[in-house]
Amino acid sequence: MTGARRFRDDPYLKSCTARVVAVSARGIEPDRTVFAPRGGGQPGDTGRLHRADGVAVRIVDARPGEEPESVVHVPAPDAPALAVGDLVTAELDGDRRYAHRRLHTALHVLSSVVVAPVTGGNIAADQGRLDFAIDLSVLDAAHIERALNALLEREVRTATVWITGAELDARPERVKTMSVQPPRGAGRVRLLRIPGIDLQPCGGTHVRHRAAIGRVKVLRLRSEGKRNPRVGIGFG
Fold this sequence. Notes:
Elements: E1 15-23, E2 28-30, E3 47-51, E4 56-64, E5 71-75, E6 87-92, H1 94-113, E7 118-123, E8 127-132, H2 141-152, E9 159-164, H3 165-170, E10 188-194, E11 198-201, E12 216-223, E13 229-235
Antiparallel strand pairs: 1-2, 1-6, 3-4, 3-6, 4-5, 7-8, 8-13, 9-10, 10-11, 12-13
Helix pairs in contact: 1-2
């Protein structure tokens, strides 16, 4: 299913046409989609699958399928049924995705401000957080917020970079997350590059330009265990 995940080529794409190739208790699998599945702390996209006859099937979650490129679309309990072979238009909730993209990219920048391995993370529509393997006493919320916004004010575009699994194995320091391993579908690994700031594997969605994020605030800085502080951020 090469090219099935259309959001990897264009995270701003809000809809695409597709054909249903599988229907199961897990959900609906089209042969291509703009819906990004949950993973790495980013929630799955929501939206609708529109049949050719105008019937709309509400999608409440998107999850990785069993195949590397497949995405399972979870319908609402009362949604109309779809069948294998149905032609549909996949249309996601664009505002929700945009909020996820802004926060996800901001968290990449945060990981370059707090220089420590990342032990966990989560993204919602209005805030996100990262947990770090570092002593809480060395962190200061005001300093983190100033440094983060100083980087976000730069006029820099983000970029997608593809490398082989062998190339990543030769540079293991590229992987900042301790609990989540980067996706390695089709022998390739996708990296997000923010020039001069960050370069690390990531399968999520991001903004093209950091100016789209705006200013952020540090909402919380607290301990989640020994040497495991949590830094939560939101839009300022």
